């Protein structure tokens, strides 16, 4: 019975009456229909059925490899299927796939329509910094020489140290805030605030904070919307890995980082952040 129900849902998804004359519905429409069917299933308690529907949709999109599905979105969906296989239960499985479908949908729309990132302008960018990139697409960014203050102590501890530093020194808050990741994509516990102008203050230690002058930097970056949880970070990092593997002219130059643009008061679904991988020209 369950299999017949899933088959019926998927028949409507990919061969519905509204699309009977079309050979291939666009990827964003496929994702929208999957979520429209999967979300009520999840809320009604059929969590396993929702996860099955999302997994089938992700696999179907990867099998089709349509022109309107960006490479980054393909990498995100492939990573989500791996996470779903390793998940402890249907709730974790469904959410891993839902995060990926949302990101893939945003990537399709950004590639096709040039949709802007949902950034809340809560603080100014440091001098010369590039603006936020599109959601779900990998882009190259160039950062000028800049000054930053960094601290250890986990997300809350490091933030408190950095906030006291800029308050005591009358330094304006900027966005983004940098959170260093380890080689596995987890947060290392180091956080940094960027100075608006590299001429402000001076480099060196200041109590629990170290002020550093950083050289110009090139990164590959992918924009993400919503929650900063480990599942989504891993999906975004996988998209960067795939992009870097296809770029023989670039090589990784240090661990990845997370760049957050919003305050904790911003509603989760309006938050925008990026995963970035520093790169250098390959030898």
Walk me through the topology.
Elements: H1 2-15, H2 27-43, H3 47-64, H4 71-86, H5 90-113, E1 138-143, E2 146-152, H6 154-168, E3 177-181, E4 187-194, E5 204-206, E6 209-214, E7 217-225, H7 230-245, E8 250-252, E9 257-260, E10 272-281
Antiparallel strand pairs: 1-7, 2-4, 2-6, 3-4, 3-9, 5-6, 7-10, 8-10, 9-10
Helix pairs in contact: 1-2, 1-3, 2-3, 2-5, 3-4, 3-5, 4-5, 4-7
Notable characteristics:
10 strands; alpha+beta; 283 residues; 7 helices
Q: The CATH topology of the largest domain is what?
A: Multidrug-efflux Transporter 1 Regulator Bmrr, Chain A
> What's the average pLDDT?
86
Structural class: alpha+beta
The CATH architecture term of the largest domain is Alpha-Beta Barrel
**Number of domains as seen in the coordinates:** 2
Which residues sit in consecutive blocks of at least 5 with pLDDT less than 50?
Answer: 1-9, 15-21
- Looking at CATH, the homologous superfamily of the largest domain is Regulatory factor, effector binding domain
Described by the principal axes of the CA atoms, the overall outline is globular
Binned strand content = 15-25%
How many strands, which pairing sense, and closed or not: the largest β-sheet?
10 strands, antiparallel
Helix content class = 40-55%
For the record, the CATH class of the largest domain is Alpha Beta
Distance between the termini: 58 Å
């Amino acid at each position: 019975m369950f299999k017949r129900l899933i088959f019926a849902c998927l028949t409507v998804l990919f061969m519905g009456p509204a699309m009977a004359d079309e050979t291939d519905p666009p990827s964003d429409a496929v994702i929208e229909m999957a979520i429209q069917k999967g979300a009520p299933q999840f809320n009604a308690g059929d969590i396993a059925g929702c996860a099955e529907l999302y997994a089938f949709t992700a696999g179907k999109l990867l099998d089709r490899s349509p022109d309107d599905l960006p490479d980054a979105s393909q990498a995100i969906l492939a990573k989500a299927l791996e996470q779903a296989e390793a998940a402890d239960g249907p709730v974790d499985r469904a959410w891993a796939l839902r995060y990926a479908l949302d990101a893939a949908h945003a990537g399709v729309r950004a590639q096709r329509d040039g949709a802007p990132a949902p950034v809340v302008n809560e603080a100014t960018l440091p001098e010369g910094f590039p603006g936020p990139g599109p959601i779900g697409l990998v882009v190259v960014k160039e950062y000028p020489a800049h000054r930053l203050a960094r601290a250890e102590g986990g997300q809350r501890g490091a933030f408190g140290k950095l906030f006291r530093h800029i308050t005591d020194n009358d330094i304006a808050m900027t966005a983004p805030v940098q959170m260093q990741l380890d080689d596995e994509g987890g947060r290392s516990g180091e956080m940094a605030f960027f100075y608006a102008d590299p001429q402000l203050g001076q480099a060196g230690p200041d109590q629990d904070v170290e002020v550093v002058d950083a050289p110009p930097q090139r990164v590959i970056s992918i924009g993400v919307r919503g929650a900063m949880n480990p599942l989504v970070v891993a999906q975004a990092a996988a998209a960067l890995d795939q992009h870097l593997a296809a770029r023989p002219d670039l090589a990784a130059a240090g661990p990845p980082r997370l760049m957050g643009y919003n305050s904790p008061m911003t509603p989760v679904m309006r938050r925008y952040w990026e995963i970035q991988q520093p790169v250098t020209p390959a030898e």
